[in-house]
Write the structure tokens for this entry.
Amino acid sequence: MPPSVLAISLTSALCVASAAAAPATPYLLRTLHGDADGDRFGARIVRLADLDQDDVEDLLIGAPDALVDGERRGAVHVVSGRTGETIRRHEGDHEGDEFGAALVQSAIDLDGDGRVDYAVGAPGGGYVRVFSGKKGKLLDTYSSGVAGADRFGAALTFTLTPTGGPFGDFAI
């Protein structure tokens, strides 16, 4: 069977920077393929700032059932908005983690490297990971300690509060 397919159309909900204004009707911009059938590639998509500095916004695309070493751990692709190529890929730790089921871009540069950062939820594993926008380095992991029983990481939003820690607060 063919791998999962995600067709990206230029619409008001998903815009890729261009010199011309977006037309009133959507048009096919590019088709991206998941790694394997059933990986649910495109289950979640988040627009990212221009992480690869090619003057076009990039995408964070979840595939929560992606195979990693023969197990459905889940994966997330950081994809160039200009070329559609995967810039980097992050993977879940264990079978059933559903890594990539929830995604969010931070509102600020959390680690001070000059690029905004992003978080990935793994509700089946009960954790959330925060990654550097510049290098993709793991910045922090938050866990409920109850691997998946409470679905911790199923939904993410980023907020800053006056009492937040060094990376602000993630609402989960």
Q: What stands out?
A: Confidence is low (pLDDT under 50) at residues 8-19. The chain has no helices and 14 strands.
